[in-house]
Amino acid sequence: MEGAESIYATYPPRLTAAQEQFLASTIKNWTIQNGLTVRPPTTFVSQEAVSKGVLATNAPVTLFPSPFPKTSFDEARAVQKTYNKLYADISRDENWLGEIIQELIDVDDFISGLWKVHDAVKKQGYVQSLSLGLFRSDYMIHTSSGSQNPSLKQVEFNTISSSFGGLSSRVSALHSELLSFPSGHQISYPPHPLFDGRVPPENAAVETLSAGLAAAHGAYGSSKSSPSLPLCILFVVQEGERNIFDQLALSTRISNFHNIPVFRLNTTEILDLTSVTDSNSSRPLIYTPPHAPNTPFEVTTVYLRSFYAPTDYKSERDWAARLHLERSAAIKCPSVLNQLSGCKKIQQVLADPNRQDHLSRFLPQGDSDTAERLRRTFAPQYDLAANGRGRELALNPETAAFHVLKPQREGGGNNIYKTAIPEFLRSIPESDWKSWVLMELIQPPEEARNVALRSDGEVISGHVIGELGIFGTILWSSNGEILHNEEGGWLMRTKAKESDEGGVAAGFSSLDSIILY
Amino acid sequence: MEGAESIYATYPPRLTAAQEQFLASTIKNWTIQNGLTVRPPTTFVSQEAVSKGVLATNAPVTLFPSPFPKTSFDEARAVQKTYNKLYADISRDENWLGEIIQELIDVDDFISGLWKVHDAVKKQGYVQSLSLGLFRSDYMIHTSSGSQNPSLKQVEFNTISSSFGGLSSRVSALHSELLSFPSGHQISYPPHPLFDGRVPPENAAVETLSAGLAAAHGAYGSSKSSPSLPLCILFVVQEGERNIFDQLALSTRISNFHNIPVFRLNTTEILDLTSVTDSNSSRPLIYTPPHAPNTPFEVTTVYLRSFYAPTDYKSERDWAARLHLERSAAIKCPSVLNQLSGCKKIQQVLADPNRQDHLSRFLPQGDSDTAERLRRTFAPQYDLAANGRGRELALNPETAAFHVLKPQREGGGNNIYKTAIPEFLRSIPESDWKSWVLMELIQPPEEARNVALRSDGEVISGHVIGELGIFGTILWSSNGEILHNEEGGWLMRTKAKESDEGGVAAGFSSLDSIILY
After folding, report:
1. Are residues A388 and A455 in the same domain?
2. Is the bond leading into A334 cis (omega within 30 degrees of zero)?
3. Among A216, A251, A439, which residue's Cα sits nearest to residue A338?
4. What CA–CA distance (Å, rounded) separates B82 from A121?
5. Were both Cys, which of A33, A179, A322, B336 would link to B35 (CB 3.0–4.6 Å)?
6. Could you tell me if A366 and A405 lie in one domain?
7. Looking at CA atoms only, how far is residue B17 from chain A in angstroms?
8. Annotated binding site of B
9. Which residues are involved in binding Mg(2+) (chains A, B) (predicted)?
């Protein structure tokens, strides 16, 4: 089959008004029927109606799956377990990690706060040697002018609250159904050669992520309380989470398939509803459901879908709650150190072409093949040290135009792009520059197009940029033992090219699926 | 186990604020995740937001399943196939049916309009000998003062657009999950003896109703068009249907499990998008999807989720559309005659204790057991003929207090209750009285209580009345041959006692499930 650019000359097929109307109304119904939903934003429905907690609308989704090169998809999957282990090993290497984090501590309160949590627990002694990672490695297709073949470049590696596994597999199901029904007469889409017999590849994100949490639950062992208590997994979430159905897809699987009790808890409720008994040196974390105060549970695994951004720590009480969890016997997904391993600075250090080789430190000695394979997924990244290459590229408008400037934050929305970089840097104190990372922009296919249904029912179409995430889970011990290391499931997010940022919940981009070519 | 009254002395268990909050928020999430949803009413969300067609909210549901006597549930299921055949046979007996309908024609424009459709098709000759019925027989538990045992009394028998099969089975799943999870520590509800190991009985409504439609599709045979066309089932629906997810549960099953193409069509689109080729004496009904105008389908089965109320016929064009469907080769679910067999007058004639025995006419000769079994489910019903028992009971406020006055309409909302009956009758011309039926009120358990979550998120609790519907499907030929006759699936609706009417979509009542005792 042809390359990406020629595919997009005819893809997606143009829709008549009746075809667009059919697809939009079918998707509006399908998403509600199948929980491919979000709580509506208050920009669309009144705050009063939203506050009742009953309304839902479709997650933003593309009408068509997006073409994606099979070799790149296979490669992204093939390196995931290596990436899982790399970030587990970085999290275990407190000295190396600490040295890099030290560079950020005086300029980044958030990083500093996290490190303080680690320090405090270290003083008391960690009581849990196991850590769980539910990771997502995000990529874009890079079409460099010199090369015929598109290559795979990592945008970022997420070590906390990797989202959209739950909804993503439903988008695959949606597009598969549209491509397959009615049986023998596929008329939902206009015909296109790319559709001939193709459906999106299997997407086992829910199964994989849930199995990771179940593995941690199992590895925790029996209750450390006396008398012993029933065990559970705890999802720690943000208040008023609009993306709740993504999370519920995992908790439902854990409850119904793995038969493990799961509870949800807002960050603000942690200190009220959980306790750590200091008289018990194992420090089990006890959760007392307010609706069943006589049936306390012992928490084996804390899964964070919160606490990943500075805004999740509104007061010292929130930092106290994070410390409270961290010092307990529960397995954390992630631990503070594992969260810190995902900050952009680490990715920059690994990918900086002008810096000493750090990557090999974490790979089996002599395995240059694996190192090379990972390196091929790196886009060049730089720090902004004085007299360094990064500073030079960032301050020159001509070279800045090919770069993006990223803070340490997860979740998007904070990046500075292209020619805005020099001006932005001059607007902040030079002492803060070291908290930023400069990354060469990946050049995705220019002509990619798609059509999306927004959560407010509007249908928009135009040029897009796609980002593929691969999910992986790993459970490791501080002594280096790996108890579980799996790859499985993926996420395709597609954003309108006019917007420079990701983050589906923020309304900039849509959930998508892929057709391999 | 004890009788209904003593059960309700302790049922449902009282909820603390935290317990109610847990159940309400769990159900708010579960319903969206599992499509137990309706489109929101404009009383709750602005017309503008509703018009985008993307929002959904939970269907009104009870927090607890309702206790129901096992013997009555078994009996309701046991008579369903006999009821299926009874109404099929009534629909085939044009003379008998016509005689009764004649009594209504000059006082009821709607009944008269339906009969005219039948007359017009009869003149041209029917081209389809098969008819499909998707029925629901509705019952209440009757607790007469003299008897210890509760008995089962039929409220009505529905022959068109029998709804809530799709959502009802999900309510069973919801209550089962609340009763079963977390595994080994059932803490969703406060403990109650009725819960010990019990979950709602299996509810195969979706499977049963879909299998009925699939049976008709299969019995239609091959395409009658030349050249032959692909075959499909057509759902004819109301514009702006809020209860769409109930319908989609059936069409999804038909499409994904039975592999049969299904399309939805508003009544207003019938004449634009379907055609009957008169040059073909078989008169196949052709549907041309607007999104695939080059791929017309031949309709094997027309499933009406519209055309059941006078408000569905806004102009002569709607009557023309109904005639257009009726004269075609498609199997109708229901045919006009089958729809007419469901009018209240028929049920009154069968159940009138002061009238000649009509029931035996439709049952196997000498099978007095079956007749007796059906009769036990009848509440006494009367017409209002001059000097008749019905008129006497209706005009006397003392006896009227034990009765309900019903028009021929489906769907509730038009009944006159108790002491309001004499005054109402005097307010309309006596010549119109014959379009009304007087029915003895069923006396459900006085103390029944439940708690419900409304679609706007409000939680209400109080005394309730429950109504159990049993679903059945039958496919028959005009020559009396029965090709398919099945019973399966049920609906529990629970309404606040303060309201006298049913109709969940109207907001008066909630979907419920049952625990057998």
Report:
1. no
2. yes
3. A216
4. 72
5. A33
6. no
7. 8
8. 136, 156, 158, 160-163, 241-243, 247, 305-308, 344, 406-415, 417, 439-442, 467, 493, 495, 501, 504-505
9. 156, 158, 410
Q: What is the pLDDT of residues A428-469, one digit of tens each?
A: 999 999 889 999 999 999 899 999 999 999 999 989 999 999
Q: Is residue B431 part of a domain?
A: no
Same domain (yes/no): A34, A163:
yes
Whether A466 and A419 share a structural domain: no
Q: What is the CATH number of the domain that holds A408?
A: 3.30.1490.50
| Catalytically annotated residue among A207, A298, A410, A486 | A410
Q: Which chain B positions have a beta carbon within 8 Å of A18's beta carbon? A: 290-291, 293
A146 is in an annotated binding site: no
Q: Are residues A281 and A419 in the same domain?
A: no
The pLDDT tens digits of the residues spanning A305-326 come to 999 999 999 999 999 999 999 9
Closest Cα in chain A to B40: A55
B-chain residues near A292 (CB < 8 A): 19, 187
Q: How is residue A275 written in tokens?
A: 């306790």
> In B290-353, which ranges are E strands?
297-305, 331-333
Domain boundary at A441, A458, A491, which?
A: A441
Is residue B113 a part of any domain in this protein?
A: yes
Are A271 and A387 found together in one domain?
no
Domain co-membership, A179 together with A236: yes
In B25-150, DSSP assigns E strands to 37-38, 57-58, 61-62, 66-68, 130-142
A250 lies in the same domain as A300: yes
Separation CA A414–CA A434 (nearest Å): 16
Structural domain includes residue B483:
yes
pLDDT single digits (tens) B52-88: 999 999 999 999 999 999 999 999 999 999 999 999 9
Residue B412 lies in a domain: no
Domain boundary pick from A423, A441, A459: A441
ipTM value, please give it.
0.95
Characterize A249-279 residue by residue with b for buried, 16 or more Cβ atoms within 10 angstroms of its Cβ, and e for exposed.
bbbbbbbeebebbbbbbebbbbeebbebeee
**What is the C-alpha to C-alpha distance for residues A59 and B419, in angstroms, rounded to an integer?**
52
Domain count of the fold of chain A = 2
The secondary element (H helix, E strand) that includes residue B190 is: none
Identified catalytic residue from A39, A136, A253, A322: A136
- Per residue in A322-374, pLDDT (tens digit) is 999 999 999 999 999 999 999 999 999 999 888 888 998 998 887 888 889 99
**Enclosing domain of residue B56:** 4-379+454-516
Cβ distance A289 to B252 less than 8 Å, yes or no, reads no
Mean pLDDT within A160-168 = 97
Average of per-residue pLDDT across B148-164: 93
